[in-house]
Amino acid sequence: MQTTAIKVHLVDDQHLVRAGLASLLALDKRIQVSGESVDGQAFLECYQQGNVDADVILLDVRMPRLDGIGVLQALAKYHAPPCLILTTFNDSDILFRAIEHNAKGFMLKDASLEELVAGIIALSQGGSVLQQALKEAVMAKQRSVVTPQVQGLTAREQQILQLICAGYANKEIAAKLHKAPGTIRNAVSTILAKLEVRDRTQATIKAIELGLYCAANTPSD
């Protein structure tokens, strides 16, 4: 059970967007906006000075001086909090670039409060999130692309992959499949190795690209 609020730092060059997000997130007691930055460069300077106290970073993509992708690249050498990309653009190319540079989540700015809070909580627990509209954008782009099938995933690994793609954390997967958390953790590591990806977010993208993910196949309780 969550006992302390998740600290979130907002990075967006539009004051109205930051104010709107702060007001929206204030409606949920599980979230605390702990800081704001006016663009990527301001955030990076603040972070390097040790003045960012956050569990999750909400990061805009298109900003002056230093954009969201640039921030992700700069943060690669640090043990930084997970970044949730927020954008008005339903652009799978930007999504792929963000994921390549270790973004842990990607959502459109018109996401509901429930979606946004769920995404923040997922990232704070070591999970990932990819909004359904963006999953559909990726699938639409990949329909005309011929990709090799991944060999070697067992039935159980495919089942776990469906849950990873749906945004479940390891503890949630363990509870749903009635397995020990350590068993699931080992299985996830094996899945990442077989897919030749670095993390759960990249695994989600790879699964969508290869046609391995279908929401209808997500195991139910």
UniProtKB/TrEMBL annotation:
Q: Which residues form the Response regulatory domain?
A: 7-124
According to its UniProt entry, one GO biological process term is: phosphorelay signal transduction system
InterPro entries xref list: CheY-like_superfamily, NreC/VraR/RcsB-like_REC, Sig_transdc_resp-reg_C-effctor, Sig_transdc_resp-reg_receiver, Tscrpt_reg_LuxR_C, WalR-like
Is this entry keyworded Protease?
no
Q: Which UniProt keywords apply?
A: DNA-binding, Phosphoprotein
* Any one GO MF annotation of this record: DNA binding
Where are the 4-aspartylphosphate modifications? 60
- HTH luxR-type domain mapped to chain residues: 146-211
- Any coiled-coil regions, as ranges: none
Q: Write down the CDD domains for this protein, in alphabetical order.
A: LuxR_C_like, REC_NarL-like
Family annotation (PANTHER family): TWO-COMPONENT RESPONSE REGULATOR
Name of the protein described by the UniProt record: DNA-binding response regulator
